TrEMBL record:
GO biological process per UniProt: DNA repair
Descriptive protein name: HAD family hydrolase
One Pfam family from the record: Hydrolase
PANTHER family assigned to the protein according to its UniProt record, in alphabetical order: PHOSPHOGLYCOLATE PHOSPHATASE
Amino acid sequence: MAFLTVGGRTFECEALLFDKDGTLLDFMELWGRWADDLLQQTEAALQAAGGGWTGSAEQAFGVVLGPDGRIADYDRGGPLALATAEELTGVLAWQLYGAGMPWHDSVDAVRGFAAAAEERLARERPVRPLPGLESLLREARQAGLKLAVVTSDTTEAAVRHLHWAGLDGLFDSVHGRDGVDAGKPAPDLALQACRSLGTEPGRAIVIGDGGADLEMARRAGAALAIGIAPGGGSRLHLAGADAVIGSYAELGIVPRA
């Protein structure tokens, strides 16, 4: 057991459970690039089929496009942030199907687009841990806290991204959407992580950048749900948090005497 301080308050805990994208790693640095690739490939296929977006690209992805047509921001409760790979494939394949492409061809095309985008990520490894994260993780480990990742990404991809960022040796376990029956906001990921760490949910603190993370924490019975809004971003979607921080500098770790 150790103590975590936030906003002038102190909480005793045994474990910290972190979301990955937007919480450990800069979301736009990694997934913004991936989604831009996917958007451009999908748009080219729509044009080749003589069609266009049903609705808009922004609605399909759950993003905000800048004046240059590139992704500038994303909806923390939208498809890009929360959908599984198969769910997002379905969303985009439906766009191609609406433009006249047969369904199976649409699905195959989107899977090909995603594979090409993944290959680019593997070459460039565009991961950037949030400022102050690594020092906080090391302090937490030194204080005896157990650390886990709970993500809507696949476990394999999460492990790979943590390795790219040089953070893989700092976590006791990593849990992806593919390892549970129901993803966020269901409690499954948090409960699985607590079991793997040998702790009770009521002794774990969840840290995440989305409302689904906070709801997962609440349903699991976690001791605390901390929202993070890096870079001074909007905090409206974190209204259900017990505390909200803008950076990891606002958290402190105090070892138990």
